[in-house]
Design brief:
Helix content is 40%, strand content 16%. About 14% of the residues have low confidence.
Length: 182
């Protein structure tokens, strides 16, 4: 440890008070500079080096995981068969019902529904006696919005007619979602 010497009186007799030293003869206050020992400096350098190495390893592992995900995605794209729809996204294909469907009570309504633009939904409530109500929504911003509006309309009509069967989706856009036969 370094020996302290008072600059005012030259005394080396001090009393320690917290981080300061007070001269016992003249009362001058000295602040001793703190120095890091060489072992402490070595420890700090080692910690910094280890943290740097860990950061590099983590970064490299993240990069390799990202490359694997990209590879998996590209592999799936190669093996996935995407059925191309020959129509524009906002236009429905021309609907042509078969002969059996022409006798169905909703044939005219469904034919008009199919001719409408996407996004759309058709919900129906059909009880065992053959009573039914329906609700549909066309030209909405999303399929979810079309489903919600069609369901709400169908349920309103179902409650007015006192049908017990809850409304179910029959068509979502132009895809049959459920069968009307039970």
């Amino acid at each position: 440890m370094n020996t302290l010497i008072c600059k005012n009186c030259g005394s080396s007799s001090f009393t320690k008070r917290k981080e300061k030293y007070q001269c016992n003869y003249c009362g001058s206050i000295l602040i001793q500079q703190t120095f890091y020992s060489s072992k402490r400096i070595q420890l700090i350098v080692m910690v910094v080096v280890v943290l740097t190495i860990l950061s590099i390893l983590i970064y490299k592992s993240l990069i390799s995981v990202e490359k694997k995900i990209d590879t998996i995605g590209k592999t799936k794209e190669k093996h996935t068969v995407v059925q191309q729809h020959p129509i524009k996204p906002n236009i429905s294909p021309q609907y042509k019902p078969n002969k059996q469907f022409a006798t169905f009570p909703l044939a005219d309504i469904l034919q008009k529904y199919h001719a409408q633009p996407l996004y759309k939904a058709f919900f129906i409530s059909l009880d065992k006696e053959g009573n039914y109500v329906y609700g549909y929504s066309i030209g909405k911003g999303t399929t979810k919005e079309a489903n919600k509006d069609a369901f709400t309309l169908c349920e309103k009509k179902r409650k007015e007619k006192h049908l017990t069967q809850i409304c179910i989706p029959y068509l979502i856009n132009n895809t049959i979602a459920s069968s009307l036969t039970q």
